[in-house]
Specification:
Helix content is 29%, strand content 18%. By secondary structure, it is of the alpha/beta class. It folds into three domains: 319 residues, Glycoside hydrolase, family 3, N-terminal domain (TIM Barrel, Alpha-Beta Barrel), CATH 3.20.20.300; 230 residues, 3-Layer(aba) Sandwich (Rossmann fold); 118 residues, Immunoglobulin-like, CATH 2.60.40.
Length: 699
């Protein structure tokens, strides 16, 4: 069914409703209209990395971890698995007449905001700091969710339109002010590509203001999203955002005025209660019947495209047995493996499963289930934490596990002055041959407006890039006492371990929030079951380096694209157990919209491995402001030892154009060159990898 047919059917349904009934359908918890045979429908559902908040489902690695795979095709497969489980759940919910929240097919995912500041607690929900990577991952995930059949398999939603990335404590009052250059070069591209190319069926507005307008009542909804990009889906407010228009932004004098401002700007659906006041707004002539009707038609078009009103409901044959099934578990493990980023390895990894004696798995995340999940998650039928993962993989070794300390609170308990367990953690470590130090964060402190406030965290945001003191004390004592220490870092953002731990740890693995099977994937990596191939989707900075104010949305000094200092670990970086060579890079041709670049990638090591081949553009002698480098090509390539393959990249010229001060795009002046390799072509990556990228000058 095409959009025109769906819209026609939607209009026929809406025109049978009274105005009051149409208004009732503009709320996320839309009531039934029994006289028309229309069931209630709750629009609110989540699936950031698996079907969330509604019971059992495959819990995939969190979005930031999926981004670290640098493998868009894999993310598409994850999206397909998620929508299969979504339909399986929906089919049973409909069968039992359960139409409650989190039971529908409209998923408010993916979060394609740019992770511009490492302190942002919700950055874990994003695909990182780069607009190209975010667009590629977002498009593939959306296509996997929505499918390519006659009906939508499920509905995806790009959020939060348009400039939104913290701080969490002020998100309901904050006014984001950005240059036109940064708006169009950094903040809007992922939205544009998910609308134009992936045909996303929903877009969610942000809480904050942009240029003084609340994001759910701003001109960009019609002027850019609808008129310029041709968006045909529905627009929904973030939850409570329309109430913010009145209560927090003081943009309107009353709730009916706030509801009217959002509706007339193009916000079709309200997550919250504010649209209950649309009846008053209509009676006071703040909105017209046509405004109400058009919003209802927009929403019913999506419900028609989902097949809700078909006699034979599409995808009804997907069985409940697909939930957390074997093939999805295998895909989950594959995703967790590809998400692991090896940051340091002096040769200690991989460990020998035959000869390794005692392994001490120590730290607050050694046995922490919620550190596998992140946030916006479902519930898996089985979780494998790091300690259990080592027990499964290193079957001949003696595995000792201990918490050692809390995530942030120094006091583990308060019995008769007994406060911490650091001595126990150090004791286990000193008696082991190898120590795996499981450090990091979890969703109790890092996340969305979660109320956690202490010296390290502010309502979900980080105040510092260092780990909390209790973890740093444990790490430093173990590094001072033990020789063979490996750090397994689990968090949704960039963490700085400090100079001492970074220097003394023999290996460092960043696992993010790796999903239900993350502990198994981490243990397998350390055993050499597979070679790591993950890459950093964000820059890892040195804590204490000068950073722009959190509230400053100017990109100067932010992310690898405009960074002015050397990072601890750069965007695009990650080590392997083998070595890859790039040769004979050349431009194969171009047309009006695309450059075609090719390069030969060779596995020169002794282990089969995935390689994440990357292409970056760089401009020199340009009179316009351009990034240090701009990622513009990605390919995941698996090669046997000694195998070579010619890899071709089709690079849209959009991503290598220069954005002018007024936000328009133009062909860059000066020299344009492409660099291809396993990392970005910056000095820090060269220092860490010893591998230079291949340069191709275009002009």
């Amino acid at each position: 069914m095409n959009m025109q047919e769906a819209r026609k059917k939607a209009r026929e349904l809406v025109e049978q409703m009274t105005v009051e009934e149409r208004i009732s359908q503009l709320r996320y918890d839309s009531p039934a209209i029994e006289r028309l045979g229309i069931h209630e429908y709750n629009w609110w559902n989540e699936a950031s990395h698996g079907v969330a908040r509604s019971g059992m489902a495959t819990v995939f690695p969190h979005a930031i971890a999926l981004a670290a795979t640098f493998d868009p095709e894999l993310i598409g497969e994850v999206g397909e698995a998620v929508s299969t489980e979504a339909r399986a759940k929906y089919n049973k919910s409909v069968e039992w007449g359960d139409r409650d929240i989190y039971k529908g097919l409209t998923y408010w995912t993916p979060n394609i905001n740019i992770f511009r500041d490492p302190r942002w607690g919700r950055g874990q929900e994003t695909y990182g700091e780069d607009p190209f990577l975010t667009a590629q991952m977002g498009m593939r995930y959306i296509r996997g969710i929505q499918g390519d059949g006659e009906f939508l398999k499920a509905s995806a939603c790009s959020k939060h339109f348009a400039v939104h990335s913290g701080p969490e404590p002020s998100r309901h009052t904050f006014d984001a002010v950005v240059s036109k250059h940064d708006l169009w070069e950094t903040y809007l591209p992922a939205f544009e590509w998910t609308v134009r190319e992936a045909k996303v069926s929903g877009v969610m507005g942000a809480y904050n203001r942009l240029y003084g307008y609340p994001c759910c009542a701003m001109p960009l909804i019609r002027d850019v999203l609808r008129d310029e990009w041709g968006f045909e889906g529905y627009f929904v407010s973030d939850c409570g955002a329309i109430n913010d228009i009145y209560a927090n932004h003081k943009f309107s004098a009353s709730l009916p005025e706030a509801a009217a401002a959002a509706l007339k700007a193009g916000c079709n659906l309200n997550c919250g209660e504010a649209y209950r006041h649309l009846v008053e707004a209509w009676e006071e002539d703040l909105v017209t019947e046509e405004d109400i009707t058009e919003a209802a038609v927009q929403l019913y078009t999506i419900r028609v495209l989902l097949g809700e009103f078909e006699e034979n409901r599409p995808y009804a044959d997907i069985p409940f047995s697909k939930l957390d099934c074997r093939e999805h578990r295998e895909l989950n493990l594959k995703a967790a493996r590809e998400a692991m980023v090896l940051l340091k390895n002096d040769g200690i990894l991989p460990l020998d499963r035959e000869t390794t004696g005692t392994i001490a798995v120590i730290g607050p995340n050694a046995m922490n289930q919620i550190a596998l999940e992140g946030n916006y998650n479902g519930m898996a039928s089985e979780y494998i934490n790091p300690a259990d993962g080592f027990r499964r993989v290193f079957t001949k070794a003696r595995i000792r596990a201990a918490k050692g300390c809390n995530i942030w609170n120094e006091r583990l308990c308060s019995w008769a002055g007994f406060e911490n367990m650091r001595s126990e953690g150090v004791a286990y470590a000193k008696e082991a041959d190898t120590v795996v130090l499981c450090l990091g964060l979890d969703c109790t402190i890092e996340g969305e407006e979660n109320g956690s406030r202490n010296e390290f965290f502010d309502d979900g945001d980080k105040r510092t890039l260092r780990l909390p003191d209790t973890q740093m004390k444990l790490a430093e004592e173990i590094c001072a006492s033990c020789k063979d220490v490996i750090v397994l870092l689990m968090a949704g953002s960039a963490i700085d371990l400090g100079d001492y731990v970074t220097e003394h740890a023999r290996a460092i693995v960043c696992a993010w929030y790796p999903g239900a099977l993350g502990g198994l994937a981490a243990a397998e990596l350390m055993a050499g079951v597979y070679s790591p191939s993950g890459r950093l989707p964000v820059t890892f900075y040195h804590d204490g380096d000068p950073m722009p104010a959190f509230t400053d949305y100017d990109m100067k000094g932010r992310t690898y694209r405009y960074l002015e200092t050397a990072p601890r670990y750069p965007f695009g970086y990650g080590l392997s157990y083998t070595s890859f060579a790039y040769s004979d890079a050349r431009l194969e041709g171009e047309d009006d919209n695309t450059y075609r670049l090719s390069v030969t990638v060779s596995n020169e090591g002794g282990m089969k491995s995935m390689e994440k081949a990357q292409v970056y553009a760089r401009y020199t002698d340009s009179r316009t402001v351009t990034p240090n480098f701009q990622l513009c090509g990605l390919k995941a390539v698996e090669l046997e030892p000694g195998e070579s393959r010619r890899v071709v990249f089709d690079i849209p010229k959009y991503w290598v154009s220069a954005v002018l001060e007024d936000g328009t795009r133009a062909a860059p002046d000066g020299e344009l060159a492409f660099y291809t390799g396993g990392s970005q072509p910056d000095e820090r990556s060269l220092e860490l990898t010893g591998r230079a990228c291949r340069k191709v000058v275009i002009r």
